[in-house]
Every structure is written in C-alpha cells, then in structure tokens.
Amino acid sequence: MKQQKIPRSPVNHELSSRASPASPRRKRGVPLIQIELLLIAGLAGCAPLPQVGPFVEASNQLRSAVAASGTTVAAELRLMPGGTASADRLQQEWEVRNKAFAGIAAYANSLKAIVDAGNEGAASAQKVADSVSGLARAAGVSLPGTPEALATATDCVKFISAQIALTRATKSLEQALETAQPAVEAITELVAADLKDLEDVFVSAAKANDNAVRTSEEFRDLLGYRIQLLKQIGMSNPADTATCDRQVQLGQMLQASDAWLSKYLAERKEIDDRLRVGRALIQATLQSARDWGVAHGNLIMAVKERRPVNTDSLIQAAVEIRNLVRKVREL
Amino acid sequence: MSEWSTIQDLQGWKDKLGELLAEARKAAQQDELAPRIDVNERLMQFVENSWPNSPEITALDEIAIQTASAMLKQTIEERLQTITERTGEYQRLGKQFAALAEETEAKADSIRLGAITSFIDATTKLIDSAKALQKSLKDNAADQRLGEKIEETIAAIEALRSSIGKRI
C-alpha cells in the first residue's frame, strides 16, 4: 500500500499537550513518532475504501425508475374506460414501494457517508483540533510547547486519526453491507416479481385503450367497410371493361376513407408508442434492480478483499434509466 | 387466406364467436398474459371483419367486445392483487433500510468525530457566555462567590478540553 504523506500543519498547537517538547524523541531532531506510525500503518495494510459513488447513483436511479414505472402504468390505467379505481389502487400500493426505495437511497447515501468519513479522517482530526484550539483561547489557557513541536504532534495526531478513521470506516462499511445483504436480496426478488405484474397490468391497460379506439363509434365500422371494399376490388377483373366504372368507384370510395384511416392509425400509434417506451422502462428497471443487487454483493467482496469494485455497468444502467424516464415523461 | 375470409353468413360468424369464446375461457384459466392478449386480438379482428352490420352481427360484436374487456380487466385485477400481497413485505424492508441508514449515518458521524467537535464548540460558547457574565458582576460578596464558581467552571472545562485532546 502506498503510504500517506503527512501534512505539516501551522495550526492547532494546543494539541501538543500530548507530546512534551522535552521528549527524547524530539531531541534527535527527527519526528521519530511519525516514522514509527508510518511503519505501523504500513504493516496494518490500511487499504483505501471502495468507491461507492456509482452505487449511490444507481440506487437513486433505481428509486426514480421504480417510481416512474408505477406512475406510467397508473396513468395508462386512468386512460382506460373504468380504470380509475385500478389506477388509484396501484398508486396507493406503489407509494409503499416508493417509500421502501427512499429507504434504500438513504441507506446507499449512508454508505457514502461512511466512506467519506473514513477518507477524511485527517480533516476530521483537524476540525476537532480547531475546535479545541478555539476552546482553549476562550478559556484563556496558555499551552506549553514550541510551535514546531506542537505542529509535529498535531500532524501525528492527524495521521493516527486518519488511520483509525479508515479502519473504523472499513469495519462499519463491511458490517452495514453484510447486515443489508439479505434485505437487498429480498427486495431485488420482490421488485422483479412486481415489475412483471406491473408490465402485465400495463400491457392489459394499453390493449384495453387500443380496443376502445378500435371499437369506438368513430372508427368501429371503418375497418369493416375498408375490408369489404378491398374484398370487392380484389374480386374484380381489371381487364373487364364492363365493370371498369364500378372498379374506379370502389377505388375512389377507398381513397375517401384514407383521412379517416390516418386518424385511426395515429390514435393507435400513440397508444403503441406509450406501450413501447413504458415497457422499455419497466424492463430497464428490472435489469437495473438485478444489477443493483449484484453490485451490492460485489461491494461486500471489494471491502473484504480490499480491492476496487467495477461499477461500469451500474453507471451505464443509470444513464439508460435516466433517458427512459425522460422519454416517458415527454410522452 | 385469413380465418375470416371463408365465413359467409350469420351462422358462420356465430360459430366463429363460439370458438373464440372457448379460447377466451381457456386463456382466462391460464396465468400467462400472452394467450389472453392473443385471444383479445382475435376478438377485435372478429369485430372488424364481421359483416354485414346487421343487428344480429352487431350483437355478436358486442359479445366479443365485452369478452375482450372482461379478460383484460380480470388480468389487471389479478396482477394488482398479487402486487397488494407484497406490500407488507415492502413496508418491513423499507423500515429495515431506513433504520440501517440511520445507524450507518451515526457511525459516519462518529468517525468524523462530529459529536466531539459539536461538544467542544458548544462548550466554547458556554465559556464566552460565562466570561461575559463574570464581567458584569459587582464587587459584593455574593457576586464574588459567583465569580469564583465561574472560575471553577472554566477550569473544569479546560480540564475536559485537555482530556479530549488526549482522546483523539
């Protein structure tokens, strides 16, 4: 492991109450304690904490995708004839899922807080030192020691604090991840089953809306009429001059219904577009939930084995989800 | 040749609808969505292709429309029911994640030495206030005793500061 550079601090001399300037270690003119600490830290093998930022981002995106999936399907149900009660019911049930995923996002953020706290051990020690210094000034206390000795002692304290913070953060991170793992596995399975049902509801609602267009007063007879016209055109012989006028008339009648047909097709396309994008969102959410569960397991391994974690697929999935949520909102 | 093109009369359409209703019943007994969607599509095609638009044919169309609608609604209700059955588990897991998040945040704060810093900062404010109070005291016996108490308090806080300095 690469050893940490110890910064020299011009402040916080008050902390020197721990190290006397008369100490034999100081007399040698070398901050021996620092060397010893570096050796201790090296032997202890304090590995850097894994990057949890992409996991946090993926958790937030998953939360947003789950919420958007529920909203999309509820909206489709509302468009369905007599679908309001089902939409209300779904929305109510989905609210509980949204709360659960808010808990997941908070959990992911807390992992980042642990990692940040571990990485900022020296800064935290500095902050405490600043506070102690302020307190001493307020109390009017004169502290012993030369500025150089005090600075050295402060640096040592910061270094030790950094190592302690890293160790504590690693332990806390591992403990939190392991505690959460069964819940992560459970929620991954639950959301997969939910999204499958949600997709079925969505497809059924979209089909019901499509049926409503197909059987509406406006279009109900259109296709039958066109089918009959096409059937008659198909049965006539273009070479038969006796039926020529009739054939022309059939062609004109077919053409006259084109605008009507265009409107009919446009209405159905609108439903189909919603269905396509909504299903893509549900599928991406499903995949994202699986990736998220796997990523959580990988984080545990990364902390245990002191190795970095590969988060490329999580980052990619987060981008895809963001785009799909945007598309669904645009529809 | 489509399945509709060979149907010539009302009896033909009645038979076709009977066949579709049997398919719909079969699909409704299965859990999968695909067979239900397939039957739905065929029922809609029936409505579009049935001809002429006589009252008898329109009545057959209405049965086809109602069957398709009932099948889709049944699917929605069934799926919503299974979604509802999972809600309790989400509530339990959501609470678990929230509690774990709180616990982990507290640990992070402890690693950041947040509690110590807050305590010292609060104590510093206390000393400033104590000194301000000390300055406002008069030269009588009662105030002198209070002044001594304030001195003792500041000394005690300084001792505490020193202990904290040794802890970090």
What are the defining features of this structure?
heterodimer; A: 331 residues; mainly alpha; 10 helices; 0% strand; B: 168 residues
Description of the structure:
The complex is a heterodimer of chains A (331) and B (168). By secondary structure, chain A is mostly helical. Chain A has 10 helices and no strands. In chain B, 29% of the residues are buried. The mean pLDDT of chain B is 89. Classes of the chains: A mainly alpha (331), B mainly alpha (168).
Architecture blueprint of SSEs:
The complex is a heterodimer of chains A (331) and B (168).
Chain A: H1 24-27, H2 32-44, H3 53-79, H4 84-119, H5 121-139, H6 147-214, H7 222-235, H8 244-256, H9 258-305, H10 312-330
Chain B: H1 10-29, H2 34-49, H3 55-111, H4 114-135, H5 141-167
Helix pairs in contact in B: 1-2, 1-3, 2-3, 4-5
Number of helices, where a helix is a run of at least 4 consecutive DSSP H or I residues of chain B: 5
SSE order of chain A, as H and E? HHHHHHHHHH
- From the alpha-carbon coordinates, what is the Rg of chain B to the nearest angstrom? 41 Å
Largest sheet data of chain A? none
Helix content of chain B: over 70%
Oligomer: heterodimer
Strand content of chain A: under 5%
Structure summary, number of beta strands of chain B: 0
How far from one another are the termini of chain A?
52 Å
- Largest binding interface between chains: A-B, 80 and 69 residues
Question: Uncertain segments of chain B of ≥5 residues (pLDDT<50)?
Answer: none
Structural class of chain A: mainly alpha
- Principal-axis shape of chain B equals rod-shaped
